[in-house]
Amino acid sequence: MPPLVLISGPEVVLVERALTATVDELRHAAPDLDVVRLTAATYDAGSLTMHASPSLFGGEKCLVVEDLDEASDELQDDLLAFLAAPEPDVTLVVTHKAGQRGKKVLDTLKKQGARVLEAPAIKTDRDKTDFAMHEFRRARRKATPDAVRALIEAVGKDVRELAAACSQLVADTTGVIDEQLVARYHGGKVEATGFRVADAAVAGNPGEALRLLRHAIATGVDPVPIVAVLAQQLRQLVKVGSAGRGRSADIARDLGMAPWQVDKARRGLSGWGPEGLADSIQAVALADFEVKGGGRDPVYAVERAILTITEARTGR
Length: 316
Fold this sequence. Notes:
Shape: elongated
Distance between the termini: 64 Å
Strand order of the largest sheet: 2-3-4-1-5
Number of helices: 15
Helix content: 55-70%
Number of strands: 5
Order of helices and strands: EHEHEHEHEHHHHHHHHHHH
Largest sheet: 5 strands, parallel
Structural class: alpha/beta
Strand content: 5-15%
């Protein structure tokens, strides 16, 4: 392993994993490895130089400098001084989320052959789908697309929670992970999200959509994200409907969606026409305005949008 490692990207879960893997690899070669962590926000000038100095007892060291993107001038100067004359038996690991701060240090690290480990942001449903599928593959388990979709709908807001849910399913179950298995563990969360509300509304089922809405509100879900999911699903219907024929994977890549979202939108397009979609999108835009302070009753605003959507579909 090179004595320099750069972990680049904002996704905390991936940063932590890359850091843990790096330290474990170093400890495998040097069991008595001394690990020192320095954080940009609390850094004192000269600390890096002090910790990098050889110990009276010798041995390997790993200096971890976190959040270079928040580094003071003093920390950057100390890093550049270290890189100009690195100490033997010292591995330097630097994390950097994003931005231009610390660029000179970044450029120097890369020029000197630092091993770069990427930790890109996991934001979109496609990102989360890829992440969850990788989690299951890494554990040598198979999960169906519907299972991954249900898991993301239940816990996908937070990547750390998504990773924990994948680990739990792997540890507690055997065989193929399917949607029924996810429902057994996370069914209550799935039902209490805006996804189920939107599914029922887009399918033209007002009774079920309103029941799920009331359940979600009763369990503490804010109307704002419910409206956001309604808008997202309607936009996906429009985008997929305009994309024409083709493989789901190809269309998903072009539209920035997950393949399961394309398949779901294709199934959901039955019974929809351009006018109905336009009316529904306008209704959701009005609801969005009202739930963010423009109306008196946020819940009523969502209910009215749901009824407009179901009527727009079933009316065709």
